[in-house]
Specification:
The protein is an alpha+beta fold and 119 residues long. The chain has three helices and six strands, in the order βββααβββα. The chain has helices at residues 24-32, 34-40, 77-89; strands spanning 2-3, 6-7, 9-16, 45-50, 57-62, 67-71. One of its GO terms (molecular function) is structural constituent of ribosome.
Length: 119
């Protein structure tokens, strides 16, 4: 995703094994879908990395110095393309858990309304 017109994902590393069975889907992805993915995303540096004996994964490096790793073992090429697109569309921010179900700048002094309120 672009923040103020600047794509946040800088580099995508596609790691795979040329021998392992769990890398079968990512090898098919590299033959069929990766060239078109590179053409559609010229702002993105896509690097393939051969790591023997390891499960395949996608690693994204963002402008804010964060990185995300997604394991893609035993996945179809379409699923791997979906995960690569999600990495490209993400902002790279850390996930923040909310303390309450609603977020407001001015919380109610009386409390939140629920359906169990009896008058």
């Amino acid at each position: 995703m672009a923040l103020r017109g600047v794509w946040q994902l800088q580099k995508l590393i596609v790691s795979y094994c040329d021998w392992g069975g769990s890398s079968r889907g990512i090898r098919a992805f590299m033959e069929s879908n990766l060239p078109s993915f590179r053409e559609k995303n010229p702002q993105l540096e896509v690097v393939t990395e051969l790591i023997r004996g390891q499960h395949p994964h996608l690693k994204g490096f963002y402008r804010n110095k964060n990185e995300r790793v997604i394991c893609v073992k035993n996945m179809d090429p379409e699923d791997i393309l979906l995960h690569a697109t999600r990495l490209r569309n993400a902002l790279g921010r850390k996930v923040v858990k909310l303390k309450t179900r609603h977020v407001t700048k001015h919380p109610s002094v009386q409390g939140t309304w629920t359906t169990e309120v009896k008058f």
